[in-house]
Amino acid sequence: MQWQPTDDQCQLADALRRFMQRDYGFAQRRASASADGFSPQAWATLAELGITALLVPDAHGGLNASVQDGLHALQTLAPALPLEPVLASALLATQLLAASEDSAATQTWLPRLAVGQAIATPAVFELGEGFDIEQPTTQATRHADGWRLDGTKTLVLQAPFADLLLVSACAEDATIAWFAVPARSRGVSLQPYALLDAQRAADVKLDGVQLAADARIDPAGQGAAMAEDMRALWLAGLCAESVGLLQATLDATVTYLNTRQQFGQPIGRFQVLQHRAVDMWMEVEQARSMALLAAEMCTHGDAPQRSRVLAAAKARVGQACRFVSQQAVQLHGGMGMTDEMQVSHWFKRLTTIELWLGDSDAQLQRVARGPLAA
What we know:
Butyryl-Coa Dehydrogenase, subunit A, domain 1, Butyryl-CoA Dehydrogenase, subunit A, domain 3
């Protein structure tokens, strides 16, 4: 699949690369990972560059850019392994709020998200349910003039420093409902932890959380569609991020093969290692094509077809994540897994991405449920 970025995408990508080289190198990222897992300075700079405003409608102070613009920025940033909530807040949460048809939460929070003054994150996964977001057990019940939420969410990305949680719940009519829950609301408690890739997440307990009536953000009957749209964007985001990481991993491995000396010559001259590098390149290119397909399909097509195409894309990209990351570590030798080598951090992130929202086997099972053209 052939694709060329737009002029705006190229300009933003150039600005992001300068930011990574100047202010978010490997050393800065390691420092953030070992501290709080979040850099307010980096987030402020990303906001200045427009990342937080990309998907915000212009009526709320945003840039009203396309989803593809956001995915291209995410792919560009990927090699720096940002710990800040680019995907969770700037893309996923922003999309959810923008789809809520000017609810009170939209009016309150989108302008703040656009300028980086607030962070939002979706809270959708539940204990024992894996990555299923279609049948929440968190209960939303009418209470006085508002709502009461009870339940527990798990793997809520960047929840420890989020200002707003977008919580999926089962309403009284058994439909999916979405609620804007300020993270410091009474009855909200967090159990934070670090993931394999050093990102922060938390289990969030909702114990009798009282909300106003206008805290519900889904238009009537649209809660399930919002969940499906968010899942589609999430899958496309993981694919886009993977491509940026895969290319960086391949480039670093080839550089290492051309500089590491053995028997008086670079090990890259050994044919068997050249073949392995070529295999890595093929995996990267196939993943790139599937990521482009995912970026195109995540906002088009009927839900069943889109779901299966995105599952196929995630399965293929996930296979590339596993192959390329493992080959890179092996070709770097034992040092490939040391904390001082950036390739080890790319390996951890690629491994996490392969598992997130379901690994390749789980995605292939989703594809097998029906024809891609259904």
